[in-house]
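Troubleshooting log. The previous structure file for this entry was overwritten by mistake, so regenerating from the original sequence record. Sequence copied from the archived sheet and checked twice against the printout by T.R.
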Amino acid sequence: LEVKKAEEASLKQAVDDAQSAIDGLEAEESNGSASLRHQLDAIGVDMRRVETEMERASEARVKMLQEVEALQKAEEDMAHTFEELTSIVDESTARLQTLTEYQRRRCELSLRRKALLQDALADAALLEPA
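Regenerated output below.
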């Protein structure tokens, strides 16, 4: 009888120990689940930050591309303006050359006229009775 009581006490102790172990495992599982949920929440927060930063980077990229396009357009406009200015300078240079040639011819004609007048005066002076 005492052996049976000792066996029962031993079995009861084994059941209590097993229940304590089960309770400990459930507590660990619960703590592990809570920790896992906390880590998953932290990962979710990090993912939202990454998405936000990716959206900002994408917006910045689009803005940068628009600025590059605007700079390319401005460069094309400047090249066109430069071509127009070069054309104007070329036309002005041609006009200036024409005017310079005209002035040169005018000076030549003026000098010829002066020489002819001087010759005519000299001839008239020779024809005058002394």
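Residues 2-127 form the longest helix (126 residues). Archived copy saved in two places this time.
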